[in-house]
């Protein structure tokens, strides 16, 4: 029996790291990217309002929430852009909870607005959206129904955009 020596190459190079591509992103990732971008812009505008006006007195919890909001939204954007749907859902859920914390001092001191658009907006912001966020975080943590979890963290952002559009249309129709 003869043995045949096997030639082993010693100059093997490791494979280059994979390049992220948008072709591999799922529909959920793309939806989460859109929502996260909208939340980053909203968070930056809130943070700018807090830190841009030195005469503005803001409760500590609202100021902290306004500072954390864009950071959480940016983290969600990075997770979604890399195709990591579950952590992106968790981060967007955290954005909703931080937004809820921002509104709590006003809700506690002035109560829930029950007139006009506030009759819909206030209960949604104070009650419905935080519950939706907790549900979405729970679904993402268990890796269950990620489409439902994505919808749950998207509804508050889309609701707020619809409210702004409705207010703008109302003001345009009134002529002010």
Walkthrough of the structure:
- The chain is mainly alpha-helical.
- It has one domain.
- 72% of the residues lie in helices and 0% in strands.
- It contains 5 helices and no strands.
- The chain has helices at residues 27-52, 60-81, 85-110, 118-141, 146-174.
- Helix 1 (27-52) packs parallel to helix 3 (85-110), helix 3 (85-110) packs antiparallel against helix 4 (118-141) and helix 4 runs antiparallel to helix 5.
- The longest helix is centred in the last third of the chain and has 29 residues, at 146-174.
- The protein is elongated, with a radius of gyration of 23 Å.
N-C termini distance: 98 Å
- The gyration radius over C-alpha positions equals 23 Å
| N-to-C order of helices and strands | HHHHH
The domain tally reads 1
Low-confidence runs of at least 5 consecutive residues = none
| Count of distinct strands | 0
């Amino acid at each position: 029996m003869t043995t045949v020596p096997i030639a082993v190459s010693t100059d093997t190079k490791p494979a280059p790291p994979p390049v992220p591509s948008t072709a591999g992103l799922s529909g959920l990732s793309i939806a989460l990217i859109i929502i996260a971008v909208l939340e980053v812009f909203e968070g930056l505008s809130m943070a700018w309002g807090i830190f841009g006006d030195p005469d503005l007195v803001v409760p500590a919890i609202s100021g902290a929430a306004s500072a954390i909001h864009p950071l959480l939204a940016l983290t969600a954007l990075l997770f979604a852009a890399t195709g990591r749907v579950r952590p992106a859902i968790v981060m967007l859920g955290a954005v909703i909870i931080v937004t809820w914390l921002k509104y709590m001092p006003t809700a506690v001191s002035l109560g829930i607005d029950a007139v006009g658009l506030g009759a819909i907006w206030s209960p949604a912001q104070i009650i419905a959206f935080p519950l939706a966020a907790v549900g979405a975080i729970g679904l993402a943590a268990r890796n269950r129904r990620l489409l439902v979890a994505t919808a749950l963290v998207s509804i508050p952002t889309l609701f707020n955009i619809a409210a702004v559009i409705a207010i703008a249309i109302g003001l345009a129709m009134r002529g002010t």
